[in-house]
Amino acid sequence: MNFDLNEDEEMLKAVVERFVADRYDVERRRGYLTETAGFSAENWSLLAELGVMSVPFSEEAGGLGLDATATAVIFEALGRGIVVEPVLESCVLPGLYLAAGAEEAVQEEWLPALLSGEKRMAIASIESGSRDGSLWIETTAKQDGEDFVLDGEKIYAIAGAQADAYLVSARESGDATDNDGWAWFLVPADADGLTITQWRFSDGTWTASLTLSAVTVPASARLASNPDGFERADALANLARSAEALGIMECMFAETLDYLRTREQFGAPLGKFQVLQHRMAEQYAILEQSRALVELAIVSDGEDGFIRNVDGARAFISDASLELGHEMIQFHGGMGVTDELSIGQGHKRLLVLSRWPEPPLSTLDRYALAS
């Protein structure tokens, strides 16, 4: 297998690494989280200008038309910086859904605005009755002439604070367990009957809860059924989450290794103690396993096993990343859980990545069923 990056991928990797080096450290990251949207508007515009938003989209849609390798490369680099800008949540995933199922006029209205960073969109699918990634959806969409009327609640739309629109899952049938009787609907943030409540997620970013009370949207707001397109979008999103988690793991491991080499106890660096060496060696092995699984996924892009390999990588990394985070925190002691160090900031982000949109056990079940 050839794991070498091509020229475009090397360029993207260098661009994102330079962005992280120039604009991110512990203090600036904390500062970005205090801004109105929970991230830097300047950084958001710059990421769009650099083409980071456009990577997985076709050239016809205004994207770069690159494959899964490029997606993994940029999100791993973003992960190393523990970047707070919601590239996946507010642009890539909703944009891929639009590209897969929205009418041409809707795509022309929204996709260029998303890829340029002018607008943001959030996915609203999780409800209070949802468990472990199930498709339990009580929100309803009833047809009224040429419109649809939506009613229901979504407990969170990740990175949904101050979004310009939401992709809302809703039932067209009355059965909340009917796997085929639901669809995505594009709901503008200023729609009548939509109530948005903002709150902070565990990683410090802003999210939103939605209440839809007789929200009326045109028939064109309904995304057409495209199982293959949506499945591809979900697979790329899971690959991005896994690659970002890998980057965060690398950052936390490198910082801890440096700490153990310089922090002295009993007249010697902590890294001289054999028990700590063994624990770091174990986490290094987990880190390399995680990298191997991401690489296995990206080299299978275009093959039948791609989605299964992505699920396998995410199921493993979601648990392994938290284990590594716990170890790195323990090596640092009480400071490890605070926002004073990137260790604590990174671990909080790993908590979100490991549980959104489903826990690793659900991903593992899907991986096993595909075997």
Question: Features of this protein?
Answer:
371 residues; three-stranded mixed β-sheet; four-stranded antiparallel β-sheet; 11 helices; 3 domains; Butyryl-CoA Dehydrogenase, subunit A, domain 2; Butyryl-Coa Dehydrogenase, subunit A, domain 1; alpha+beta; Butyryl-CoA Dehydrogenase, subunit A, domain 3; globular
Quick rundown:
The chain has 371 residues and is an alpha+beta fold. Helices cover 50% and strands 16% of the residues.
Outline the structure in words.
- The protein has helices at 7-23, 26-33, 41-49, 68-80, 87-101, 104-115, 227-262, 274-299, 306-332, 342-355, 360-369, and strands at 121-124, 140-144, 147-157, 165-171, 182-188, 194-200, 206-218, 264-265, 268-269.
- It has 371 residues and is an alpha+beta fold.
- The chain folds into three domains: 7-115, Acyl-CoA dehydrogenase/oxidase, N-terminal domain (Butyryl-Coa Dehydrogenase, subunit A, domain 1, Orthogonal Bundle), CATH 1.10.540; 121-221, Butyryl-CoA Dehydrogenase, subunit A, domain 2; 227-369, Butyryl-CoA Dehydrogenase, subunit A, domain 3 (Up-down Bundle), CATH 1.20.140.
- The protein has a four-stranded antiparallel sheet with strand order 2-3-7-6, with no helix packed on it.
- The two termini are 22 Å apart.
- The model has no long low-confidence stretch (mean pLDDT 92).
Question: How are the elements arranged and paired?
Answer:
Layout: H1 7-23, H2 26-33, H3 41-49, H4 68-80, H5 87-101, H6 104-115, E1 121-124, E2 140-144, E3 147-157, E4 165-171, E5 182-188, E6 194-200, E7 206-218, H7 227-262, E8 264-265, E9 268-269, H8 274-299, H9 306-332, H10 342-355, H11 360-369
Parallel strand pairs: 1-4
Antiparallel strand pairs: 2-3, 3-7, 4-5, 6-7, 8-9
